[in-house]
Amino acid sequence: MVELLRLRKDETHSEAAVTVEAFLGRTNAGAVRIEPGEDGRELIPHLDRIRLVEVNFPVFGDGRGYSAARILREAGFTGEIRAVGDVLVDQIAYMRRCGFDAFAPDTPLNADDAKNALERWGEVYQPTTDGRRPIWAQRHE
Predict the structure, then answer these.
(1) Which of 9, 26, 80, 128 has the fewest C-beta atoms lying within 10 Å of its C-beta?
(2) Which sign does the torsion angle of CA 104, 106, 109, 115 carry?
(3) In the predicted model, what is the mean pLDDT of residues 127-137?
């Protein structure tokens, strides 16, 4: 069982994450947690000093966190974006496409299931933040 699945090679950031509101009121926090309904765009002016962004998924059906990750990646954030909470194995491939590179689910994931989920589709159709070229763009190479 995997309690933290990390797709990065750098050192794990262990500082406790603060809320967006608390982060904006501090100068020394390196980790922030985005809750549903909070606007991740508020962090964009501060991306150079953030090492970790946790995005909370209190229930698996709440997809607002996908947008937060994509917005931060498109704004140039290169630090870790970690999905936390009710994260299911069948969501991680989609989360990865939106910019998540770490997962800390409430219920540990089976390592083989997670690996299979991330490797299931060799080609993709939509452009997004994970660097993979959509298959339609490769057709004219």
Answers:
(1) 9
(2) negative
(3) 72
Asked whether residue 55 carries a pLDDT value surpassing 70, the answer given is yes
Structural domain count, the chain: 1
Task: Report the distance separating Cα 96 and Cα 66, nearest Å.
Answer: 9
Structure tokens of 19?
Answer: 């809320």
On whether the CB atoms of residues 106 and 88 are closer than 8 A, the answer is no
Given this model, what pLDDT does residue 1 score? 66
Is the dihedral angle over the CA atoms 82, 88, 92, 98 positive or is it negative?
A: negative
Residue 61 has pLDDT above 80, yes or no: no
Residue ranges making up the domain that contains 121: 5-138
**109-141 b/e with 16+ CB inside 10 Å = b?**
beeeebeebeeeeeebeeebbbebeeeeeeeee
pLDDT value, residue 127: 66
57 touches 87 (CB < 8 A): yes
Q: Give 20 or 1, the one with higher predicted confidence.
A: 20
Nearest one of 134, 81, 89, 133 to 114, comparing CA atoms: 89
CB 92 within 8 A of CB 33: no
